[in-house]
Design brief:
371 residues, alpha/beta, eight-stranded parallel beta barrel, 12 helices, 13% strand, globular
Length: 371
């Protein structure tokens, strides 16, 4: 049992189920299911429509018993409208009352730790006990955009930088810089200086072994980006578990993996939808980022042999098909990785397809319809 587990284990009508980190598996799901949202923008659509879909998705996820809804920070990508997670999360908080909301993640090197502490302290004040702070080490974009974000021509990505930034952020969140420290009289507001209060639990996110080891050494929960780094999933989770040291946050490891997943009413439609995501990723990886193509555009695209190989490799790590097929694929992945939570992401063209997918997955696991 987590030492942070001060909330009701069963949850309430107005609060999240489980403790501050662990969720509750509902229906026949083997572990808690959650949502990772990139606020994707499809060809012919707009960012406004995509953000409205995110609100619909958060409310659907809450109603169907998904444990959390995270938003991922990305920059300079036309097909992704999630450049400002804190802003989006505040909007989602205003339209929900129970589901946990968080960053999956905020890219710590892009921001001053004090700014993140202030933003997530504000979110915690808006939605007490429902906010997660997931932190990543990558820039969430290309090098030139990262330099523009950080207002420098030199990107400092040394192995010591991220742990130091994380330690500083944690001090701001807890308001406990020691006497004599240059920041001892600086307070993140809203925050503990205003009186006893909770604060968002910190998660480390990663796609390799660096954050896995650091999360283990610090006794923090760990989220792995299986959806775009599947080959590293099991080695990273093993490293996290082997490195884990009990802390005031967790007495045992807790792992979450992001999973590309899309359920549709038939196999053909599922394939048409996920192919849009594969083509979008191909264009991004070859320096041609754009809006998510339509299914018709993706089907008509003339893949070269090398491009087809990339698309096939990408789709091999997406769980897609009918609801029963997706349920079986998720069950197999959970068994193979031992993950404590599965966070599903459906980065496809249409908002309706995404919403339908999460509803079908919930039905496949007989997850209840909550009030």
């Amino acid at each position: 049992m987590s030492e942070t587990g001060t909330q009701s284990e069963a949850g309430t009508a107005d609060g999240p189920r489980g403790d501050a980190i662990r969720g509750e598996a509902l229906g026949s799901a083997p572990v808690p299911l959650s949502v990772l949202d990139l606020v994707t923008v499809g060809s012919g659509s707009t960012a406004s429509r995509s953000l409205a879909t995110s609100v619909e998705l958060s409310r659907l996820a809450e109603r169907r018993g998904y444990h959390r809804h995270w938003v991922a920070e990305h920059h300079s990508m036309p097909g992704v409208a999630s450049s400002s997670p804190a802003v989006i999360l505040a909007h989602l908080a205003a339209h929900t009352r129970r589901i946990r909301l968080g960053s999956g993640g905020v890219m710590l090197p892009n921001h001053a730790p004090l700014v993140i502490a202030e933003q997530f302290g504000t979110l915690e004040a808006l939605a007490p006990g429902r906010i997660d702070l997931g932190l990543g080490r990558a820039p969430g974009t290309d090098g030139a955009t990262a330099a523009a974000l950080r207002r420098t021509d030199t990107l400092h990505e040394g192995a010591d930088d991220f742990p130091e930034q994380l330690a500083e952020l944690t001090r701001f969140l807890d308001d406990d810089f020691p006497d004599g420290h240059r920041y001892a009289r600086i307070h993140a507001v809203p925050g503990p200086v205003q009186g006893p209060k909770g604060r968002p639990p910190v998660w480390l996110l990663g796609s390799s072994g660096f954050s896995a080891r650091l999360a283990g050494l610090l006794g923090l929960p760990f989220a792995f980006a299986h959806h775009f780094s599947a080959r590293n999933t099991i080695p990273a989770l093993d490293l996290y578990r082997q490195s884990f040291r009990p802390s005031a946050v967790l007495d045992a490891p807790y792992t979450l993996i992001g999973v590309g997943a899309l359920a549709a009413d038939d196999e053909r439609e599922a394939y048409r939808q996920v192919l849009t995501g594969a083509l979008s990723m191909l264009r991004l990886r070859t320096g041609r980022p754009g809006l998510i193509p339509t299914p018709e555009e993706a089907e008509a695209y003339g893949f070269s042999p090398m491009e087809r190989e990339f698309a096939d490799d990408w789709l091999a790590n997406v769980v897609y098909g009918t609801p029963d097929t997706v349920r079986e694929g998720l069950d197999e992945l959970r068994k193979r990785t031992g993950a404590d939570e599965l966070m599903l992401t459906a980065n496809v063209h249409g908002g309706e397809a995404r919403l339908r997918s999460y509803e079908l997955v919930a039905d496949a696991y007989a997850m209840p319809r909550l009030a």
